[in-house]
Structures are given as structure tokens and as C-alpha cells.
Amino acid sequence: MSGIAEPFSEGSSLAHRLDPRGKIVVAALFATLIAVAQSLAAVLGGLTLAVLWLFLAWLPWRQVLGKLLAVNSFIFFLWLVLPFSYPGDPLFTVGPLTATKQGIWFSALITLKSNAIIIGLIALIATVPVVTLGQSLHSLKLPPKLCHLLLFTYRYLYVFEEEYQRLRTAMKMRGFRPRTNMHTYRAFAYLAAMLLVRSADRAERVFQAMLCRGFRGVFYSLRTFSWQRRDGVFLAGSLLALAAILLTEWRLPRLV
Amino acid sequence: MAEPLIVVDRITFAYPGAASPVFQNFSFQLGPEDHLGLIGPNGSGKTTLLHLIMGLLRPQAGRIIIFGNEVKTEKDFVPVRQQIGLLFQNADDQLFCPTVLEDVAFGPLNQGKSPAAAKEIALATLERLGLSGFEDRVTYKLSGGEKRLVSLATVLAMQPRVLLLDEPTSGLDEKTKHRLIHIIQELHIPFVIVSHEPDFLHHTVHNCCHLHLDHCEIKPVMLEEIYHEKDKVPNRGATSCCFGGPDRLVNG
Ligand SMILES: Nc1ncnc2c1ncn2[C@@H]1O[C@H](COP(=O)(O)OP(=O)(O)OP(=O)(O)O)[C@@H](O)[C@H]1O
Ligand SMILES: [Mg+2]
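^ thats the input. predicted complex w/ adenosine-5'-triphosphate below
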């Protein structure tokens, strides 16, 4: 029912059982490295590593493909623009537009990079429930305010969606069908306004309920993180792979 | 009579922007032995009173004294909330953690219990409410009645000294209601129950407090009485307060 559900966060695969702190550190390093990499070899290495992690996480591959499709539909727009606007050697022309070799190369590199990063994040970060993510960031010594921001954003995003669903159902139950007319526009305007007011109200009451149960600005967690041997192995292996990617990036001649 | 736990002393409260106040010069007391029903028509201020006691709303005038201390600021209410459990009228407002176990353990953790102890308390409380096996369920995917019971568990897990229940039976089936009656009868703490159900009150409380603008009228629970109350327009003009005048109030 919920669009903000965390479809990948539950599971018993190796990647799910790894200590979230190790996964966060590795994912952050990985994303940074791939984002700045310029050589094809480094990016391809990253993509391979990400796919390996994905196998560790053993997620329902249909859903993963769905997510990748969503990301790549954004990248598709990049392909419409970038090859024709990047300066370089002309390759072919479509009407008044000229595609450049460098433009196409650059678009391909961005596509590979984005996919590598997304796959890496799906395997390492999406396998951590948001609440645990907040707690692990906290135990990684991130400022508590930031962690709370993450947790509450998630929590209230959910409230927002829930309120929206409830209002939509209420409208549907009374025979509302969107059309292009004033009645529809007004109904949607009411919906938006009600959504805002009611969500703010709900958020307020949830906060009150938290106060009533002794909340004083600090989240305590039932989960105690325990660093195990497999976490050490995962961290060491990943860091080694990342070092190899870094080395490729540094040593191999730029292709662009 | 022993020293009252909760004293609401001649408070006035109106919601911001509201035309008329919900309470005017209103007094109320809860003693250490009291098992009190709180009744009144819809909109008479039952929920508002409970929220005032918990410090979620602040009166414009008057005093609130809890466990012998006057409470005024947010800081004063912190220990109060650790010791008084409030079950919200709407269970959706109460549950916010992803899983039932985490939600029930939230209070004990805030009270400084270790994760292991909090988990133990949470599991024991769930079992007591007949909710064993629910610990890993996702809170927003429970049925209305299940949400209600889990909310109650989140409150009971804090082992409160006083319990305030805002319509605990709404949405419960007969069997679950009986279980709830059983649970409440075994509580050895004072409590206030808001309910529109005469049978339920008959089984759980000694006295009923009929809410008015400026006082509440204490009467023993009698089934007919409450049935009668249901279709009565609130008599807001009455003045006699049968529950401890100002002279009996304890100063903090
Ligand atoms: N957030 C609010 N803002 C303004 N007025 C409010 C607010 N909440 C409640 N009221 C008003 O205050 C009065 C008392 O409301 P309250 O919720 O305390 O009633 P209640 O006795 O709990 O009713 P019910 O039996 O329906 O739960 C009502 O007239 C209501 O309209
Ligand atoms: Mg109410």
C-alpha cells in the first residue's frame, strides 16, 4: 500500500546481516570514488564490485531491475541533450544538431557511473532499514541533529503519504473521478490544503505521544551493533577492491 | 482521604481562536485509590482534560499539581510523563516505530533501561495483553483493534503510577473488551478511563465523573445513570462540586 515502504530492507542474506556501520562507510567511499573517477576501467571495476555486492544481498531481481529502470529513465534525458551539446569531434548530425564523439563518450561514462553507484547503494544501503540507518549514523558519530532529521523526515514522510491515501480513499468512496473541470481542480486544491494541515496536525500529535512516553530528544535503540568477523572480512575486502579501483584510475591514461 | 495524586485547581482553558472556553474555573482531583470513569457528551473536554494533565496543553489560568508538586513548565512535566501513562484516543497517533517490539520498548528505553531489559519488559507486556507473536509486526499494518492493544502495551510497558485511558474500548470486539476489563481489574494503580460504554465502566471503575464546564460531578457507577447521561444535554450552569473543594487542595 505504501510507496515509501522499504522493499529491500528486510532479508537474511549476508549483506543484510552485515554490520550497517561497515556498509555505510564502504558505500560512502565507493560512491565518492566512482563519482569522481574519469577512466572507463575504474568505472567498469566499480560496476563489477557493485554487482558483486548485489549478489551478496540476494534481492528480488525484478524489483531491482524496476528501480534501475526508473533511474535510467532520468539518464535517458541526458542522452537527448549531452551528446549534442558537448564540444568535440563531430560524429553524426540530426537536423541542425551535431553529436560529438566526446559527448557520446561522456554520456556513456555518466550512465555507467550512475548505475554502478545506484546498484552499490541498493546492495549496501537499501538493505538497512531507515531507522537502523539513523542509529548507525549516530554511532558513527554523525551529529545527532542530522540523524534525527533523517529519522523524522522518514517518519513524517510516511504520515504524509498515509494522510494522502486516506483523503484519496475518502474522495473515491464518494464517487470522485478526476476530469478536466473546475470541480476537479477545486477538489485537488482542497486535497493539497487538507494534506498539509492534517499532516502537520498528525505530526504534532505523534510528537506529543512521544513526549508522553518520556522522549527527551535522544533515541535509544533496541539494536546493539556487534562487529563480527564477517564484517571485518567485508570491510577489508571492499577497501582492497576500492584501492584497486583508485589505482586503476590513477595509473591508467585518461581516455577522454 | 490520602493526599491526592493529581489536582487540577480552578483552571481556565480555551483552545486558541475558540469562541468559548472548554473549562472555566474547573477543578478535579484523583486520589491514590481512585478508579475513576470520566464521562460527558462528545466535545465536553474529556480528551482536553487528559492532555492538560500531561502538559500537552497549558491552562490559561489556575494550577495543576501532580504528586504534590505544581507543574508549569515543560521541565516540570518530564518526570510526570515518566510516571503517568496516557493512552491516546487515536491509536494512530501513538504508534510510530516500525515494529511493535520497538514501539513498546521505546518508553522503557527513555526511562534509562538497558536494551536487553527494555526488550524483556516489552515482551512481557505484550504477553500480558495476549499479543505474543506480534513483536515483529509492522505497526502501521495492524488492524484498528490490534493498534489499540499495542498502544496500551506501549503505555503499560512504562510501568506507570497512574493510568489515563482515552476511550480504550473503541474498536474492540466483545472478547477483546473482556480481556481488557480483566487486565484493568488487575491493575493496582489509580486510573481514569474515558468511555462512552456503560457496561465497560461498570466493570472497571468505582465512580464516574460527569464533566461540566466548571466542575465535575462524581457519582457511583450505575448503569441506568450512564445510559441516561448519554442523551442528556450537559448542564453547564450547575455549581456544586462534589470532589474536594479548594480548601482540600494540597499545596506543592
Ligand atoms: N485542536 C483543537 N483546536 C480547537 N478546538 C478544539 C481542538 N480539539 C478540541 N477542540 C474543541 O474542544 C472541545 C473539547 O474537545 P475534546 O476533544 O476534549 O472533547 P471530548 O470530550 O474528548 O470528546 P469526544 O467524546 O468526542 O472524544 C470541543 O468542543 C472541540 O471542538
Ligand atoms: Mg475525546
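Residues 14-135+224-251 of chain A form one domain.
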